[in-house]
Amino acid sequence: MKALSIAVALVVALSSQKYAPLPSELVDAKTVYLVNKNSDLKNWDRLYRDLAKWGRFTIVKSKEEADITLTVSMTSEGGGAAATTVAGIMVAVPLARWTVFMDITQTKSRETLWSDAVTYSSGATGKLVSNLKDRMPKK
After folding, report:
1. How many CB atoms lie within 10 A of CB 47?
2. Is residue 12's pLDDT more than 50?
3. Please, which residues have CB within 8 angstroms of residue 72's CB and are 6 or more apart in sequence?
4. What residues have CB less than 8 Å from 121, skipping those under 6 apart?
5. Tens digit of each residue's pLDDT (9 = 90 or more) over 19-78
6. What is the pLDDT of residue 63?
7. At what angle are helices 41-54 and 124-135 packed, to 10 degrees?
8. How far is CA 54 from CA 80, 108, 123, 129, 134, in A?
9. What is the helix (H) or strand (E) element at residue 139, kind and residue range?
10. In the chain, pLDDT over 70 holds for what percent of residues?
11. Residue 131's CB: how many other CB atoms inside 10 A?
């Protein structure tokens, strides 16, 4: 009967978790080094501000000081064009869907600990930080 009680308690505890658990190397990390592969500067600055405001990690200036490395990058996909009129002249405007990626690796091993992606917007990196924050256990 005791084993059944423990099993039920475990199932209830696990089912109440909203997200899959994060790797301990990420949860236990204290320092982060930031890398901007090709994100625009407004999103880059927002990422820095949002991470600093959160206060979960200390942002460091060198990889050697960092437990984890957070890399932000952007890519585009798609194609085609939309027609529009500019000053009475019909022009084709190229269409592309931009995606912003955030990859977190353990600095020493370079093992990927977390990846996320959102559609580009002026708040894309803020959304990426928010997604991580939501999943991170409270300390």
Report:
1. 23
2. no
3. 34, 35, 36, 37, 39, 43, 44, 47, 100, 101, 102, 125, 128
4. 127
5. 899 999 999 999 999 999 977 888 889 999 999 999 999 999 999 999 999 999 988 877
6. 96
7. 30
8. 40, 24, 16, 9, 11
9. none
10. 79
11. 16
Alpha helices (runs of H) in the chain, residue ranges in sequence order = 2-15, 24-27, 41-54, 124-135
Q: Which residue has the tokens 């585009």?
A: 76
Residue 86 phi, psi (nearest 5):
-125, 120
Strand partners, 99: 75, 119
Task: Round the CA-based radius of gyration of the chain to a whole number and report it.
Answer: 20
133: number of CA atoms within 13 Å, CB side?
Answer: 15
Q: Pairing mode, if any, of strands 89-94 and 112-119?
A: unpaired
Question: 45 and 122 in contact (C-beta within 8 Å)?
Answer: no
Q: Can you tell me the distance from the alpha carbon of 97 to that of 37, in angstroms, rounded to the nearest whole number?
A: 18
Name residue 30's amino acid: K
